Model the fold of this input.
Amino acid sequence: MAYLLAIASAALYGAADFLGGIASRRASTIAIVVTSQGCGLLALLLILPLLPPSSPSTGDLVWGATAGAAGGVGVALLYRALAVGRMAVVAPTTAVCAVIIPVVAGTLMGDRLAPLTTIGIGLALMAILLVSRQTIESHGGAANSGRLPSGVWLALASGVAIGLFYLALARSGTMAGMWPLVGARAASVTLFGILAMWSAQSLRLTAPVAGIAIAAGVVDMCANALYLVATRHASLSVVVTLSSLYPASTVLLARVVLGERLSAWQVAGVVCALVAIALIVGGGSLPF
Done:
């Protein structure tokens, strides 16, 4: 059952990213993040009374808030990357970086990399190079690959932030229930609310865009809840592996809904990214 929850979380993460990317193409990324994260928090608060009793410690809430700050930045960067770049390129790039972060942290803490993990890291680097390959036809018909596709640098930065989110959230205790997610969402909403006021950024959205943003926030919160429950009932490495396959959902939606097409090199890169995620997390232990 836990593995099914992890797979479901991956599907929902991908759908939430797709919705957030669509909304960010039509309005300010800050407004989308505040709206989506705020609605996700509200949805969680509404269902908390229906959940089994929990006893979170102050440390659980602090780790949750830390995760929320990192995750909020990661989501904002991801939504912006999805808005300006190809979703089928951005999503796998972000996921690969997000998986590498826990592995690097474990290595710094003394963990030894398993052979499969080492292979996965190499494949991940190859995947980034492949999905970043952009061929531009010049006037003379020659190919020019001198610059990265739009959104790739944002995707890389987003992956680092999301990786930190995974690290911090996993430090919460098993008796904390869903409260670490409450701390996470409260921190991210506060952070971006302050940023909106500081930059005099309007949070007003048209009804259609607001609907998409709300859906993204609720779906993302459901994905987080499923992920957190799954990690408490099964091997974390397996759960993270399954949950990290969310780019498949984003890529599929981008292909079906937006009709995105990739070059053969980029298709190979997407495949390498998905395989790398499985090898990196499945091949070794994480520092949790």
Remarks:
- The beta strands are 136-137, 143-144.
- The chain has one domain: 2-282.
